[in-house]
Amino acid sequence: MKKIIFVGDSTVQNYPEDENKRGWGQILPSFFGPKVECRNAAAGGRSTKTFISEGRWKKVLEGKPDVIFIQFGHNDSHAKDKPESTDASTDYKEYLEKYVSEGKAAGAKVILVTPMHRRYFNSEGKVKDILGPYAETMRNVAKATNTPLIDLHQKSRELLEKLGDAGSEDLYCSATDRTHFSKKGAIVMAGFIVEAIQKDIPELKPYLKEPKEWPE
Asked: How far apart are alpha carbons 108 and 104 in whole angstroms?
């Protein structure tokens, strides 16, 4: 049995069935077969910094996972006076390096996932790149540490700019929430991750399956 754990924030976490909100970590297990055990450790409001300081990362490692998917950036980008805030070029980078080194030292395969775009557009219909510095730092850390990277930042940009503001509204949980996904949006994000696994992470490819149904 291969044990996979998802680490991240509210765009990854699980939600109650009666909420019109889903994280991709709630959907992705449906793409894996019976020889995979998935656990979603993601928690809303957390950043690379606070996920560690609250002891959540320690618990992930104690679970002895074979694979760890890690996505942070949304809360790291908050105002500098917020406790969860990090700087993309300094401590965010250092925390990512810590996740990678400690995850690998624990025997896990670490997979970094860049933070997807929030649904904000400029007057020309282009997505506002609010999280760009964080995504770029994650790409650089992945390259420097020879760690697999799934670029949801790029994939979500392409999708949002193709669909436009009105056309992408149903991917999100409400018209006013431009960060969190509906079930449909989370399925799309999870699908991007599966595509990347099929293309770039061959050791996980045999564990994939086509979902017969989606979690509510």
From this structure: 5
